[in-house]
Structure formats: C-alpha cells, structure tokens
Design the sequence.
C-alpha cells in the first residue's frame, strides 16, 4: 500500500480551487521540551483542527480561509453532542463516533484508570487549516492559545490534525 501523499493531495485540491501554493511552515529552531512530570501526574488537553463544534454553537465554515477561531470543548459534555463541519477530509466515521477524531471518551477513561493525572477543564477545536496569514498565528492566535493552556494548568497537549 502506498503512503498518502498529503502535501501533494492538498496542493492539487486547493490549486484546483484557485488557492495559491501553500508555503509550509518550517521551524528548525523550535525547542523540544521534555516532560518534567510523570504522565500519571499530568493534566492533558487536546486540540483538534477538524471543524468540531458543540451542536448548540455556530458550526465552523467548512471552506473558510484564515479562520483563527478556536473553540473550547467541555470534556464533560457527551461526545455525541458535537458536530463536524469541514470539507478538508472524509469524516464519515467520526460523524458516527467522535472518538475517531477527538478521543474525548478514551482520554476520560485514561484519567479514571490513573494512566494520566487529569483531563483538562477544556479541550480545543480550531486552527482548521487554509491559514495563509501565519504572522497572525505566530503573533496573536498561538500566544493566546498558549496562555489559555497555561491558565488551565495543562502539562501536555495532544495536537490532532484532521
């Protein structure tokens, strides 16, 4: 089986829609930060870029560009109370079970079993892609998101690209 050529597929798809070639970010100086706590003592949050929103809130625009929206996801809300609006990928299976994309129930089970210290009080959905204004991500969106994680006492973030 051939691997999925993700970058080629995206360039072809969005090029056909009139988008300019995407300039992929590279950050060779980003520091690697080792964990300072054992996993059973860590508070864990998740960030998904898959267009997930609570059914009672406005859905994401599945074809948006430069959408810097980042929604909080309450980990205590049942996983069947969320919707997915994204044209980026086939989310048929995740529509049936959100845990295929955002393993919210599985993370709760890990906390209950003592494998992780705690589930953070908020998970996140946002940074959906097709973001061409990286300077705003670097200067505004990412620092605000990091501040929110810090405020929640998050030790470990699981980033889930969709």
Sequence:
């Amino acid at each position: 089986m051939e691997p999925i050529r993700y970058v080629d597929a995206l360039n072809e798809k969005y090029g056909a829609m009139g988008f300019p070639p995407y300039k992929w970010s590279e950050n060779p100086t980003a520091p690697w930060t080792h964990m300072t706590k054992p996993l059973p003592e860590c508070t864990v949050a998740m960030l998904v870029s898959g267009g997930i929103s609570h059914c009672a809130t406005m859905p994401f625009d599945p074809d948006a560009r430069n959408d810097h929206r980042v929604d909080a996801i309450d980990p205590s809300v049942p996983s069947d109370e969320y919707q997915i609006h994204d044209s980026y990928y086939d989310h048929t299976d995740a529509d049936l079970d959100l845990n295929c994309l955002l393993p919210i129930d599985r993370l709760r089970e890990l906390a209950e079993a003592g494998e992780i210290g705690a589930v953070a009080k908020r998970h996140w959905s946002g940074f959906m892609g097709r973001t061409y204004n990286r300077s705003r991500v670097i200067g505004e969106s990412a620092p605000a998101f990091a501040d929110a994680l810090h405020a929640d006492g998050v030790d470990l973030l699981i980033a889930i690209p969709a």
Observations:
- The chain has a mean pLDDT of 88.
- The chain has four helices and seven strands.
